[in-house]
Amino acid sequence: MKKRYIIILICIFLIIFSFFYYNFFINGNNIFKKSDEEIIDNILNADFNYTAEANVTIYSNKNQNTYEIKQEETKEHSFLEVISDGDIKGLNLEYEENKLILKNTELNLEKIFENYNELSSNYLFLKSFIKEYLESEDIKILEDNENTIVVKITLLNSNKYIKYKELYIDRKTELPKKLIIKNSDKQIKVCIIYNNIEILQ
């Protein structure tokens, strides 16, 4: 009788373990998921370093252009390269120690701008959004759907062309997946979709 009781307990344990393993590891329904605030704090801080592949769409009054780019940002260094076919394929922007290095690998051209202090205002980089988020007094955190957090900010001392920014964060991967920039009329001027993004340690 005692042996049978032990076997029943082991079976119950295995059933419960299998249920938890399937739901929380295979399906990703982890009971130890981070809160939205923790996910946002992990990304939107000055120490967030990353590398990414993204599609950037720039909207004008008459048309729109989409470019495939590579990016890398650390505390000391920022790099962007246009990799899609077109007139600006091979264009590289590199920021380091208050210096902007502009290159075109297709045309074998290079130009260096010394004492360049506009890195923080370059809206194509996530660190620009992070800096503005940390300084903004108008922040809204919303839910686009059950898998997406949206952080909306209104920019201080901005112009009419770049007034609002929205960062979409994937709850499962805990990484940015889209950045939208709007003008003062709340029309989309830039949309950056991150196809592949990795955190650098």
Total count of domains: 2
In whole angstroms, the N-to-C terminal distance is: 57 Å
Note the main sheet: 11 strands, antiparallel
| Mean of residue pLDDT values | 82
Number of helices: 3
CATH class of the largest domain: Mainly Beta
Radius of gyration from the alpha-carbon trace, in angstroms: 23 Å
List the helices and strands and how they pair.
Layout: H1 2-26, H2 36-43, E1 50-59, E2 64-73, E3 77-82, E4 91-96, E5 99-104, E6 109-113, H3 126-135, E7 139-145, E8 148-159, E9 162-170, E10 175-182, E11 188-199
Antiparallel strand pairs: 1-2, 1-11, 2-3, 3-4, 4-5, 5-6, 7-8, 8-9, 9-10, 10-11
Give a verbal description of the structure.
With 201 residues, this protein is an alpha+beta fold. It has two domains: 1-32; 36-199, Lipoprotein localisation LolA/LolB/LppX (outer membrane lipoprotein receptor (LolB), chain A, Clam), CATH 2.50.20. The chain is 21% helix and 45% strand. The chain has helices at residues 2-26, 36-43, 126-135, and strands at 50-59, 64-73, 77-82, 91-96, 99-104, 109-113, 139-145, 148-159, 162-170, 175-182, 188-199. The protein has an eleven-stranded antiparallel beta sheet with strand order 6-5-4-3-2-1-11-10-9-8-7. The mean pLDDT is 82.
